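Practice problem: predict the structure.
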Amino acid sequence: MKFSFESGVPIYLQVAGQIEDAILSGAFPEETQVPSTTEISVTYQINPATVLKGMSLLTEREILHKKRGVGMFVSRGGAQKILQQRKRVFYDGYIVRLLEEAKKLHLSKEDVIRMIEEGKTDE
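Answer:
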């Protein structure tokens, strides 16, 4: 995990994002335990309350669940929930803007597809 204290992104969101990335990469498969709040806070010198806030966010989204007295675990379907949420963000943040710009430039669907396939942004 890497955290940027200068990025402007709150640390608790970075904690949640890093755990999500680890789940998506397979580092934390479903039903496996994730590092504790204490482990993360000590290792990365982050306030435990900040780490807990990030983990609580994932618990609220049902990506993690707590086993009393044992720790936090990846929920069944957690990776799928992350994928669905990130696909929505990708669509809203990139695809919608891409389509709006393509319309302004009078690009056809075929033009956009060709540009994506070529990996080019200009001609």
